[in-house]
Design brief:
With about 120 residues, the chain is of the alpha/beta class. The chain has a single domain (about 5-120), classed as 2,3-Dihydroxybiphenyl 1,2-Dioxygenase, domain 1, CATH 3.10.180. It is about 20% helix and about 40% strand. The chain is built from two helices and eight strands, in the order βαββββαβββ. It has helices at about 15-25, 70-80; strands at about 5-10, 30-35, 40-45, 50-55, 60-65, 85-95, 100-105, 115-120. A hairpin with a 6-residue loop joins strand 6 and strand 7 (about 100-105). The longest helix has 13 residues, at about 70-80. The radius of gyration is 14 Å and the shape is globular. It starts with 6 loop residues before the first strand and ends with a strand.
Length: about 120
């Protein structure tokens, strides 16, 4: 069981962010599931991550997605850059966090720090 069931991230432009997250999350196995008004849900079977159109300003948030392999982290990073993200840390080991912490960071269209992380041994 995970500590958080789902989270919704504020975004300024729902269509732009939907496009970005559909591309960026695909290498991690997450997909678009549904839209509920000005909110869109992503996940594997359940809405675990959502975006909600909100009027700025809102503070940038750091959100890390779990990856099953280092290849998924690299795939996320490359897909996110293709979708318009800016690099905030190329894929690589971050031993200062944990011995096997392999992660990549991007800034999404709203400036949120989005990470994919594989916690190897």
């Amino acid at each position: 069981m995970s500590i958080v069931d789902h989270v919704n991230l504020p975004v300024a432009n729902l269509a732009r962010s939907r496009h970005f997250y559909e591309i960026a999350l695909e290498p991690l196995g997450y997909k678009f599931l549904m839209q509920d008004g000005r909110a869109i849900g992503f996940g594997i079977k359940n809405w675990n991550f959502g975006i909600v159109e909100t009027q700025p300003p809102f503070p940038p948030i750091h959100l890390a997605f779990s990856a099953s392999t280092t290849d998924q982290v690299v795939g996320f990073f490359e897909a996110a850059l293709r979708a318009g993200a800016r690099s905030n840390g190329a894929p690589g080991l971050r031993k200062q966090y944990h011995v096997g912490y392999y992660a990549a960071f991007v800034l999404d269209p709203d400036g949120h720090n989005i990470e994919a992380v594989f916690r190897g041994s």
